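Ligand-bound model needed. NAI.
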Amino acid sequence: MATTIAFFDATTSEKTSFERYFTGPKYKLHIFDKTIAEVPLYEYKDADVVSVFTASNVDAPTIASLPRLKFIAVRATGTNNIDTKACQKHQVAISNVPAYGQTTVAEYTILLALMMARKMPAVMGSVESGQIDYRRLTGFTLQGKTLGIVGTGKIGMSVASIAKAMGMHIVAYDPYPNEAMEDKIGFSYVSLVDLFKGADIVTLHAPLMPATKYIINKKSLGLMKDSAILINTSRGELVKTIDLIEALKNKLIAGAALDVIEGERTLDVDTETDLLLGDKKTSFEIAELDVLTKMNNVIISPHNAFNSHEALHIIRKTTAQNIHGFLSGNSQNLIKL
Ligand code: NAI
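Prediction:
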């Protein structure tokens, strides 16, 4: 019997790649451009393998309703959108793409830092409005400023290397410090409190897990300099958005650049309709997003840091290898359940 693989969140070019990676009668493919929640179950109920990007939540009821499901290939590093307990219960293995984007995401993080430092939202806004007054647009250089990196894994280290080359002073926090890299790149591990107190720019590169959820909250924002910039290219739930809004309104920090945000799926909805139709949580998230997008010291991008041609190529190739490996008994990149 053919192995059925159901891909969700697939772009047109991903579709072409996956059709090339899985050819012949051994495979039956369902390729959807929608999230798993948007596709009726009967269209993929025969799936042996499911592959999703970050937009799809593979929850316990979905896992329980796929009788043949054995493997979930996540086309990202973070796997927080998969219900691991349900996978354990139903003996479903999960793989990720552990290393595709450290340079891509690190460069994007530095881009956001530069944009915030040089007030790019206001600079671009002034050109659009035809009122160019450089006195309102004065920024600061990154050279000589202190960058606080929360999480020194692949992306955090890559950010550290680039920032070091730009003349920044770097402090970092990680519960599992990498002292060899600390010496090699030339930064210092400090406590989280000292990082928040001392950094001109705080950038988040820790995965979403119970210990990191809302690591940026009223208390941590209160420790930061009033000139500090917060950058989040990790996962939205690391930041308690309502506390960030309050801190920005009260000028406890100077600005924020968020590639990821709680409830980021609401970025592509019709705001007013969804406010009327959505549940309380969705309405709250939409309202938060609406407030933030109106602030000229905030940049929001739609979970886009990974999005380079180079990274996409590695994601597709590694996902195909993960699936081929699992099906042939040579699994790779499995997540510990
Ligand atoms: P990684 O696994 O290489 O590094 C994560 C680091 O965080 C590790 O050094 C770990 O020890 C550290 N960490 C664990 N708990 C921590 C805590 N409580 N406080 C501080 N640090 C802690 O992961 P990588 O590849 O560097 O990616 C980091 C995150 O970036 C991913 O988990 C993912 O959520 C996000 N990401 C976002 C993308 C985007 O497009 N915006 C693209 C790729 C990844």
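Residues 60 and 162 are 40 Å apart (CA to CA).
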